[in-house]
Write a structure and sequence with these properties.
Blueprint: E1 6-10, H1 27-38, E2 43-45, H2 74-79, H3 85-91, H4 104-122, H5 126-138, H6 140-155, H7 176-181, H8 183-209, E3 213-218, H9 227-231, E4 246-250, E5 260-265, H10 269-274, H11 278-288, E6 293-296, H12 300-303, E7 304-309, E8 319-322, H13 325-336, E9 345-347, H14 355-363, E10 368-371, H15 372-375, E11 394-397, H16 406-414, H17 418-424, H18 435-445, E12 450-454, H19 455-458, H20 491-503
Parallel strand pairs: 1-2, 1-12, 2-3, 3-6, 6-9, 10-11, 11-12
Antiparallel strand pairs: 4-5, 4-7, 7-8
């Protein structure tokens, strides 16, 4: 699918520094895109843009279709006359722009107050009202269930939908009386989605005007406590009460000795196939209205998935079950091909990958992924990695959001082990103060048509800047919290990346 050499940088919007404690889609995002353009980059890769819940992970969301309202820019709302300068000043009081972590609870409190204030002024804004009505009509298929789910979650004090008792039917839906009673909150959740997508569409258009495309991310699984499962129970492996019979995960691997028990409900692929994969097509189509390419997370699960009985406490006692394979990807191809007849999907094919997985990916021409940290160095007696050994139709990363930064990886996994250091020095000098850029150069000079590095590597940051540690408990490792300080995004770094990009034909 990839047709020319290009490169980009991975950064989630929450990592942008703003006056409100969390990144958003406003002026700092515009500055970021300008920096990417100055650095000669053609792609900005983001994590899922969905709302988050406990643990703040964008991979465990209450909705696979909705946008994260905490990413809405207050500055842009002021421009639309939905907020005042005094309200912005009050919301930004005592925010440390140099802080290296997002305090999600504090940031959400600040954003909640601002968004509620914006709602109060919205009714008198006739220009936006017309746009809002059109949005509600166009997006009604997912928007109505999202608004109902989030409203019910609020009035039931954030409990799991199977434990709701207030204003619900026996099927855990909102009662008719409850719909009248909570009409204002239903409208609030619709409005927040309108504001998010309005701002995102404007930001994406600006990125395109600067020659930057967006790579998005679609997790294979959705959270059990989500509008997706609550509204579409027939597509998941649930019992008659709505609880999972089997859940998702991966067996023991590089990241975790007992595997990773994700606990997401598994799909009933037979039921989805009988319906022509309509729900999945709608999900992918919605994502491709937001981004230009989609990284399809855990692609391995479409060939075969790890099924764990819901009663298990780890992912060890699971089994591989055949996935939907060609039938699923054929349905995606028939519905989602772009103007050039290509399926705009990057297959995340990391971990325990079999030849069958590679064959499935290749049959549909999907680029796979190569992560240098997983390939370097090889075993002492193996021939060293060659820059031309990757398939051209692939994406090479120095590391991903799930890896340590290259500096952190080098300091813990390479430098203390002389045999690994000797092996790696066959490829690059291994100067500790420059190791992140040495890896970027290896990726940029490789034969993969697309090369991507996390911003942490471009900035040469250590392990404290790691975005996520898979298999760790919520909050234990500061997962998802990293953000950069405004002074880190320098002109010198942009020029250095631009020069390397030009020298490597990207």
């Amino acid at each position: 699918m990839l047709s020319h050499r290009a490169s980009g940088v991975l950064l989630h919007p929450t990592s942008l520094p703003t006056a409100y404690g969390i990144g958003d889609l406003g002026p700092e995002a515009v500055r970021w895109i300008d920096w990417l353009a100055a650095a000669g980059q053609k792609y900005w890769q983001v994590l899922p843009l969905v709302p988050t819940a406990k643990g703040d992970s964008p991979y465990q969301s209450p909705s696979a279709f909705a946008g994260n309202p905490w990413l809405i820019s207050p500055d842009s709302l002021q421009h639309d006359r939905l907020l005042t300068a005094d309200e912005l000043a009050d919301a930004s009081r005592r925010v440390d722009l140099q802080a290296a972590r997002v305090d999600f609870r504090d940031a959400e409190d600040r954003k909640q107050k601002l968004l509620e204030a914006a709602v109060s002024r919205f009714q008198s804004n006739h220009r936006l009202r017309s746009e809002f009505d059109e949005f509600c009509h166009t997006e009604r298929d997912w928007l109505e269930s999202h608004a109902e789910f989030m409203t019910l979650r609020e009035i039931n004090e954030g409990r799991w939908w199977l434990e709701w008792t207030v204003d619900v039917t026996g099927d855990h839906r909102l009662t008719a009386a409850g719909r009248d009673k909570h009409a204002a909150r239903l409208s609030v959740h619709r409005l927040w989605q309108f504001l998010f997508f309005r701002q995102w569409d404007e930001l994406r258009a600006y990125a395109h005007s600067r020659g930057v495309k967006i790579i998005g991310d679609v997790p294979i699984y959705v959270a059990h406590d989500s509008a997706d499962v609550w509204a579409n129970r027939v597509w998941f492996q649930l019992d008659e009460t709505g609880r999972s019979t089997h859940v998702a995960g991966v067996p023991p691997d590089y990241f975790a000795a007992t595997g990773q028990l994700w606990s997401n409900p598994l799909y009933d692929w037979d039921a989805l196939q009988r319906d022509g994969y309509r729900w999945w097509i709608a999900r992918m189509r919605a994502t491709l209205r937001q981004v230009d390419l989609v990284r399809l997370d855990h692609f391995r699960g479409f060939e075969a998935y790890w099924s764990v009985p819901a009663s298990e406490e780890t992912a060890v006692n699971g089994e591989w079950i055949p996935g939907p394979n060609d039938a699923f990807l054929a349905a995606m191809r028939d519905s989602l091909t772009d103007e050039e007849g290509q399926l705009p999907i990057i297959a995340e094919d990391l971990g325990m990958i079999t030849e069958e997985v590679h064959a499935l990916r290749k049959r549909f021409g999907l680029p796979g992924m190569n992560v240098l940290q997983f390939r370097l160095p090889g075993a002492p007696h193996e021939p060293p990695f060659r820059l031309d050994e990757f398939d051209a139709n692939s994406v090479v990363y120095t590391g991903t959001h799930d890896n340590d930064t290259t500096v952190g990886w080098f300091e813990t996994e390479i430098a203390p082990h002389s045999e690994r250091l000797v092996q790696l020095r066959k490829l690059t000098p291994c100067h500790p103060q420059n190791i992140a850029w040495e890896f970027i150069e290896l990726a940029w000079r490789s034969s993969s048509l697309l090369a991507v590095a996390p911003l942490q590597d471009v900035l040469g940051l250590g392990r404290t800047a790691r975005m996520n540690t898979p298999g760790t408990a919520f909050g234990d490792y500061g997962n998802w919290q990293w953000k950069y300080a405004p002074n880190m995004l320098t002109t010198d770094a942009a020029h250095r990346l631009r020069d390397l990009t030009a020298a490597t034909g990207r």
